[in-house]
């Protein structure tokens, strides 16, 4: 996924997953056989309770190149969203902001922190509600072809990022999105469904990982996700 000379922009929301991936990528910089640069971007959606100051201080302490963008996504959704979930709307808006930052600052790779649980939830939502076998891809190019998107944590469980973030004392910002609090989402329903099934079948996520493997990559890239 990471190549010689890559300039990687990591989207950091302040959650356990993106902060854990930040630590992984910084560690890789010290011993990976390829050299790459790393910067971070935090998008402030201007929702009540989101305070990024701890993240800014953390980035400065690490000596990172960081970027910060503010956009009233919740207010824009109230005015413009039509026939969509707020989570989907917010995701698209943030993605556009991250692409713009990549182009303006000269990053050729965008790193995102979705993990195996996220991919499994997306897989079920696509099958249940869209009639398609799809999930998030681990490595692909955007529609314009100028930015590669990577998800290095696609084989990592959410329990692992939570345990790592706690053990490392990462400055996690609790989810403060009022839209997520106001109504359960399809994703939250799938998360509960998967948790219930995993209690019956401890191999559930290993099976799902194998089932989704061909969906995670573009044709010809399958070797990039060898389980070993």
SSE blueprint and pairings:
Layout: E1 7-11, H1 16-31, E2 37-44, H2 53-62, E3 65-70, H3 73-80, H4 86-105, E4 109-111, H5 116-130, E5 139-141, E6 148-150, H6 158-168, H7 178-182, H8 186-200, H9 204-216
Parallel strand pairs: 1-2, 1-4, 2-3, 4-6
Antiparallel strand pairs: 5-6
Helix pairs in contact: 1-6, 5-8, 5-9
What form results from the Cα inertia axes? globular
CATH T-level topology: Rossmann fold
Q: What is the residue-mean pLDDT, rounded to a whole number?
A: 89
Helix fraction, binned, reads 40-55%
Biggest sheet record: 6 strands, mixed
Q: Would you identify the regions where 5 or more consecutive residues have pLDDT less than 50?
A: none
Number of strands: 6
Rg calculated over all Cα atoms: 18 Å
Secondary-structure element string: EHEHEHHEHEEHHHH
CATH superfamily: HUPs
**Count of spatially separate domains:** 1
* C-alpha termini separation: 15 Å
Q: Tell me the number of helical segments per DSSP (H or I, 4 or more residues long).
A: 9
Oligomer: single chain
Task: Return the CATH architecture.
Answer: 3-Layer(aba) Sandwich
The spatial strand order of the largest sheet comes to: 3-2-1-4-6-5
Category by helix and strand content: alpha/beta
DSSP strand (E) fraction?
Answer: 5-15%
Query: Which CATH C-level class is it?
Result: Alpha Beta
């Amino acid at each position: 996924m990471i190549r010689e000379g890559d300039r990687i922009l990591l989207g950091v929301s302040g959650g356990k997953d993106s902060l854990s991936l930040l630590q992984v990528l910084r560690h890789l910089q010290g011993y990976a056989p390829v050299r790459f640069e790393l910067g971070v971007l935090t998008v402030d959606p201007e929702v009540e309770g989101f305070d990024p100051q701890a993240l800014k201080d953390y980035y400065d302490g690490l000596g990172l190149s960081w970027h910060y963008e503010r956009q009233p996504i919740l207010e824009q959704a109230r005015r413009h969203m039509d026939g969509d979930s707020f989570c989907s709307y917010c995701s698209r808006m943030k993605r556009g902001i991250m692409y713009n930052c990549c182009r303006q600052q000269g990053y050729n790779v965008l790193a995102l922190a979705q993990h195996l649980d996220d991919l499994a939830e997306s897989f079920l939502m696509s099958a249940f509600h869209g009639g398609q076998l799809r999930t998030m891809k681990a490595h692909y190019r955007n529609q314009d072809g100028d930015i590669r998107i990577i998800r290095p944590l696609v084989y990592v469980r959410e329990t692992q990022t939570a345990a790592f973030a706690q053990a490392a004392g990462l400055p996690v910002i609790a989810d403060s999105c009022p839209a997520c609090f106001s109504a359960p989402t399809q994703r939250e329903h799938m998360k509960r469904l998967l948790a219930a099934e995993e209690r019956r079948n401890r191999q559930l996520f290993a099976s799902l990982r194998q089932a989704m493997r061909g969906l995670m990559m573009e044709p010809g890239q399958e070797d990039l996700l060898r389980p070993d």
